[in-house]
């Protein structure tokens, strides 16, 4: 059954395309320090896990995906990442990233199903209105 708790789309489940747009929205800012991005990763990770515990799949998905993108794609490209982050911290980041990817992979089919069910319900409503007898 689709959820009515979407924080983003006013009572309807978000599509995967809509969630991707939320993930991309202001994800990366040039010129920020490694320390800034480590703090952001921690913030996004914590928000994802909190949202998952509270049953907010969309919020959990968006913030888990954001944190994972920062860990695996953005951070390694920073010039001072290799110098400022020790091997132990990199290992911890990779483990957190793996857990976040697992969360994203677990939520993806659920979110798709909720959206597909909502679409089907809306189609049935439209068909019911179209099939209703009209009296003149």
From TrEMBL:
Transmembrane segments: none annotated. It comes from the Eukaryota. Residues 15-116 form the USP8 dimerisation domain. Signal peptide: none annotated. InterPro entries: USP8_dimer. This is USP8 dimerisation domain-containing protein. It comes from Candolleomyces eurysporus.
